[in-house]
């Protein structure tokens, strides 16, 4: 019960205050360098793919650090000179408005549920080259919206307008939202927390990811105590 309460507190803190953009506020911090290394490793592993523009960042459980990884990864790509769009596709517990200090009243759900295009909801951030599409108002049917034909149209549009697209989705084992998007992206990155995420849940998540036949770019192991991040491409986690 104590562990569950701690996870819920961490999750609420991120939702209310946003993820820490260490790569923007402290670019010389060792953690920022780890995120840049992560960016390089992802590009190295994805070099064999026919196309790599849209990457989905998810986790097995809540409070594994996926939003922190997704937002800082987006920042590092923008800092490298690429045009980047961060998409908050966690329609149940959005954080992008708090992380990037943008308006929360328009976003992905307003585009999905109305006759609008992404350009009507995309917002610029204070970071050069980085735009954000917040989740928008909470809908009654998140999974259905993400699996709709309109979502396919949105992804086609953003692929045509940005060099890189980072999509943050809910944990795989919590809801089916992530599965609705896996077939529409170029690759998936799984974030796990050392000492917290259960190994059985990691294996189950990888099995679900493989069913989508979307390339698994790698796994990010997060050490919450030491605030370290490490990237591994197709390592032990992915073996049967």
Question: Would you write up a description of this structure?
Answer:
This protein is of the alpha/beta class. It contains ten helices and eight strands. α3 packs across α4. It starts with a helix and ends in an 8-residue tail after the last strand.
Notable characteristics:
240 residues, alpha/beta, 8-stranded mixed β-sheet, 10 helices, 41% helix, disordered N terminus
Q: What would a concise description of this structure say?
A:
By secondary structure, the chain is α/β, with parallel strands linked by helices. The protein is built from ten helices and eight strands.
Cα-atom radius of gyration: 16 Å
SSE pattern:
HHHEHEHHEEHHEHEHEE
Helical segment count: 10
| Content of β-strand | 15-25%
Dominant shape: globular
Going across the biggest sheet, name each strand in turn. 3-4-2-5-1-6-7-8
Low-confidence stretches: 1-11, 230-240
Helix content: 40-55%
Q: Say how many strands there are.
A: 8
Main β-sheet description: 8 strands, mixed
Structural class: alpha/beta
> Kindly state the mean pLDDT as a whole number?
86
Spatial gap, N to C terminus: 32 Å
